[in-house]
Amino acid sequence: MLRVTMEIIGQESPLIRKLIKYLKTANKMVRLHVKKGDESQFLYETHVDAMVEDVLYEVTIIYNGRLKILRICYEIEDLAKHGTMLPPNIMGLTDEQVEELKLRDEWGEKCVPMGGWTFNKDAIGRRNGRQPNEKMQEILKNTVEDARAMISKKLVQQDKLLTQKIVQDALDILRGAVTIVYPMGLPPHDVIRQEFENTEDLTGTQASLEVIDISLAQLWFSGKEMIQGKKLKNFLGSNEKTKVIVKLQKRGAGMPGREPLMSEEERKLLMLHAYKRQEQIKNI
C-alpha cells in the first residue's frame, strides 16, 4: 500500500521522505538498564538524540512511582487486615485511654467497607480493626498482587520495559480496588488516601531516604556523570540499537561503583568451565 501511494504522489514528496525516515528509525531505540547502586530497577527505552535532562526526569518519575506503588501495596495489605487508619489523636492509645479521654473514631464510623466488617485488632494500634469481609479482602489482595507484578524488578530479567503509563495504570487499579471496597472513601488521615492525593508526608521515615528529588537526581554511565544540557549520544555513542547500564542516584553521593567485567552468572559458568578443564587434564 505504501509503495503504491509513493508511486502515485512521488517519492520526492517531503511528506514521503519524512515517513521513510520515520519507518527506518521507528524500531531503533537505545535501551537503558536502570540501576540504583548494584540493584536493577527497570528497563527504559529512548533515542540517543534525547536530552539527558528529559531522560533523567522520566527515569526519576518512574523510579519514584515504583516506590509509591510499593508503599501503597504495603498499606492496602494492612487495610485488608485491620481496616482504616485511626485518627492521629487516637493512634497508639489503649482502649482504656480512648474510653477515659472519651475519644471517637468518627471517620471510621463513616468509612465502612462494602459488605460489612468483623473486628480484627491491630496489634500496633495504627488501624481501627474493622476488617472487610473475605470477598472484599480478596479484591484488595489480588489487586496488590497485580500492581506489584506490573512494576516488578523481575521485568528486567524478562526484557520488558517499564513506562510512566504502566506506573500510572498500576496506581489506577489500586485506587479502583480501594474505591470498590470503600465506596465512601478513606479518612483524610489515612496514608493510602494521602498517597493517592500526593499529600503524603514521608518525613523521618525510611521511605524518605529512598525517594529521589528530581532536582537532585543524576544519571551515571561507565563511571561518568551524564551532564544535563547534552544528548545521550555524547555519552553512549550514536548506535541506537544498543543496551547499556546506567545508574540513578542523588547528587552528592559520589561516583557509583563500576559494573563488574562479568555478571554473576557468567562468573559461575567460567568457574564451571575451568573446573571441567582441570578434571580433563587430570584424566590425561
TrEMBL record:
Pfam family, one: CFAP298
Signal peptide: none
Top-rank taxon: Eukaryota
Name of the protein in question: Cilia- and flagella-associated protein 298
Taxonomic lineage of the native organism: Eukaryota, Metazoa, Ecdysozoa, Arthropoda, Hexapoda
Family (UniProt): Belongs to the CFAP298 family.
GO process annotations (BP): regulation of cilium movement
InterPro entries: CFAP298
